Amino acid sequence: xxxxxxxxxxxxxxxxxxxxxxxxxxxxxxxxxxxxxxxxxxxxxxxxxxxxxxxxxxxxxxxxxxxxxxxxxxxxxxxxxxxxxxxxxxxxxxxxxxxxxxxxxxxxxxxxxxxxxxxxxxxxxxxxxxxxxxxxxxxxxxxxxxxxxxxxxxxxxxxxxxxxxxxxxxxxxxxxxxxxxxxxxxxxxxxxxxxxxxxxxxxxxxxxxxxxxxxxxxxxxxxxxx
Length: 226
Description:
Strands 3-2-1-4-5-6 form a six-stranded mixed β-sheet, sandwiched between helices. The chain contains ten helices and six strands, in the order E-H-H-E-H-E-H-E-H-E-E-H-H-H-H-H. The protein has 226 residues and is α/β, with parallel strands linked by helices. Helices cover 46% and strands 12% of the residues. The longest helix has 17 residues, at 26-42. The chain folds into two domains: 2-146 and 203-224, 3-Layer(aba) Sandwich (Rossmann fold), CATH 3.40.50; 150-197, no CATH class. The two termini are 13 Å apart.
């Protein structure tokens, strides 16, 4: 049996700007879009269960770096959309954690006994794919193979997530790709590099340091039952 986990938070953000442009109802759009994507995937794989992963704020990573995803509010009615999704689907959410973290823990638990598909176009999930042997799928692109590019983010940073690069100012992607994974010849800010590793890493040990044990216990129980 194939288990499907959906990065619902990515769907919310991807649909929001389209809805603003065309003045569509964002709640209806997000719910319908997720349902349609699930239906299309069900035509290609025997899906036994479906669960949605949702962000929860404030994010624990802001304890590591206050600038992480520190952007003005986009105006997305997150509470209303989340409530609609919880009413319609089985969901997973944990205080302080992003959907990506929950998806990692879900895959780490279930890929030992099931095939797990992550429904999302976000390449950040490549880390989970590499560590758990899950499969990432996007309806528009199909199967998204792991190209290892998630590891570059530690060095190149990510403007959209507020993660600065750890490479020297004039050292960029081309220089990195020429020598990767042996980066010993590059000038690197080691302090920034260590911060980036903690910001980008998905691991049980990281969550146990930053998420209350009671909250993790409840999340583990919900993951087990979904």
